Amino acid sequence: MTWNEVLRPVHPSEVVGNEQFVLDAAEWDKTGNYPAALLFVGSPGTGKTSAANAISRTLLGDAYNDMNVMWTNASDDRGISHIREEVKNFARLSGIGTKRKIVVLDEADGLTNQAQDAMRGIMEKYAQKVLFILTANYADKIRPAIKSRCTVYTFHRVSAEQGASHLTRLTESCGVPTDWEPYYGDVVEYHGGDLRAAVASLERIPKTADAIKQFTIKHQEDDWWDFTVKNKWNELRENLLDILHSTGDRLSFMNNFHRNIRKQFDRDADTTFAIMAVWGDMMKYVYEWPGSGESYVEVLVAQLKEKIEVKET
Q1: Contact 200/191 with Cβ under 8 angstroms?
Q2: Per-residue pLDDT tens for 149-207?
Q3: Whose CB among 6, 34, 35, 163 lies 3.0–4.6 Å from 158's, allowing a Cys bridge?
Q4: Which residues are paired to 132 by β-bridges?
Q5: How many Å apart are CA 18 and CA 156, to the nearest integer?
């Protein structure tokens, strides 16, 4: 099992970063009155799938098995035939040892409009027998008729403090050095509040006391500004590539870059706004970029070079 799987919550109280969901889930567990359907919205790494897993295990208890819970990634099985054949056939059968089964549609915003229309009818017909849990990165891609049938929760990236509390479980569960614990907040901040990316990065590094300190080194993050305002574009390229390799993926890199851009408004607001505009343009492609992470960063630098005119100081 990966470390993210080891740390995945099995109870809603272990979910990090959405206090309202945790409070509501505790009430559902107490009363047995769960919503007709749930929709979890938020960017990757914010705990949507983990929350779905926790609710499923809490509601079903010992009845949690393949007969009573269906997990499907809607971005892979996105067509109407999958909904009508697989999901509907599962929903119409009664649960075994439970009054209500569960269907989890991960990345439901990947479903076609026709598939969502079919899904709406199934959700309406089998709401008493099935709890439907949908996750989505983009709320505006979910049809209004489905949203209206769901209790909606928006998940956000966690704070350094929240994330650090979650990462302390690594010491016991994964045998990491206790020397890592003072730096967990830095790791979460380094990854822009993306807990999944933070855990994956920690799993990759050597399990030595000093290895985690790479996430607390700030000089690379400070250097990029000087390279930009002094038109040292190749140095900027090398600097940002180093940061990409440290963070591990494009999304974490871009969230980290955004955090550092925001620190510069007091130094030079006009230049900072221009950099932010380039960041925004490139962020549109962070999930769909067809090339390597290195090519993504190099195009980012090329955009900065083309659009930002800064005089030598």
Answers
A1: no
A2: 999 999 988 888 999 999 999 988 999 999 999 999 989 888 878 888 889 989 999 99
A3: 163
A4: 37, 103
A5: 7
Longest Cα pair distance anywhere in the chain, in angstroms? 73
Tokens of 103: 């269907």
The CA distance from 133 to 212, in Å, is: 36
**For residue 184, which phi and psi values (nearest 5 degrees)?**
-60, -40
- Pairing, β 37-41 against β 151-154: parallel
Rounded Cα distance, 26 and 223, in Å: 47
Beta bridge mates, 131: 102
Q: How many CB atoms lie within 10 A of CB 174?
A: 16
Neighbours of 278 (CB within 10 A): 19
Q: What are phi and psi of 152, to 5 degrees?
A: -105, 135
Closest to 48 (Cα-Cα) out of 81, 30, 64, 71: 71
Give ∠ CA 255-297-281 in degrees, rounded to 5: 65
**Over the stretch 230-247, which tens digit does the pLDDT of each residue have?**
999 999 999 999 888 877
Nearest to 191 by CA among 1, 4, 9: 4
Which residues are bridge partners to 105 per DSSP? 72, 134
pLDDT single digits (tens) 18-70: 899 999 999 999 999 999 999 999 988 888 999 999 999 999 999 999 999 99
In 3D space, the residue among 13, 48, 52, 47 whose CA is nearest the CA of residue 35 turns out to be 52
Q: From CA 265, how far away is CA 173, in angstroms rounded?
A: 41
Strands 130-136 and 37-41: parallel
How far is it, in rounded angstroms, from Cα 168 to Cα 142? 36
Contact 261, 254 (CB under 8 A): no
Cα distance between residue 255 and residue 192, in whole Å: 5
Of 220, 234, 221, 245, the closest CA to residue 305 belongs to 234
Global confidence as pTM: 0.72
Place of tokens 């979890």: 40
